[in-house]
Amino acid sequence: VQLVESGGDVVQSGGSLRLSCVASGFTFGQYDMSWVRQASGKGPEWVSGINRIGDRTYYADSVKGRFTIARDNARNTLYLQMDNLKPEDTAVYYCARDRSHPPYSGSYQFVGNEYDYWGQGTRVIVSS
Predict the structure, then answer these.
(1) Contact assessment for residue 97 and residue 116, using Cβ atoms and an 8 Å cutoff
(2) Is the dihedral of CA 113, 115, 19, 50 positive or negative?
(3) Which residue of 28, 44, 85, 111 pairs with 76 in a disulfide if CB–CB is 3.0 to 4.6 A?
(4) Can you tell me whether residue 28 is helix, strand or coil?
């Protein structure tokens, strides 16, 4: 199993980025997927999740209305469109394969054992 993120960059506040995560080594369309981020000196934070066929999406309250998660199962790729970026969005962003089906909600708190594979991360820096 391999998950490879890309798309991180330095962007000004109010700008946009699109992150991608290419999956290999498993049947991508059979798994729910998530994006998790970790800012320097802080613990991981769940950002967004999507079910296996892409018709259900979930967002943390901190990103709702600004971020959009999507997937292309034909291309084995997960996306995170990030608009109206804020300095507090600065973090390393990871895609992760869901091991189970957590009860995602806007206030969902990251646990860790709900994911069985992670990518190496891509860094997003939002300057003010």
Answers:
(1) yes
(2) negative
(3) 28
(4) helix
Short-list 1, 21, 19, CA closest to 91? 19
- State the Cα torsion 42-100-116-67 to the nearest 10°: -50
Q: How far is CA 86 from CA 89, 101, 115, 122, in A?
A: 5, 29, 27, 17
d(CA 78, CA 69) in angstroms, rounded, equals: 8
Which of these, 14, 18, 6, 34, lies nearest to 88 by C-alpha position? 14
pLDDT in tens, 9-25: 999 999 999 999 999 99
d(CA 43, CA 47): 13
**pLDDT for 100-122, tens place per residue?**
888 888 889 888 889 999 999 99
Does 109 or 86 have the greater pLDDT score?
A: 86
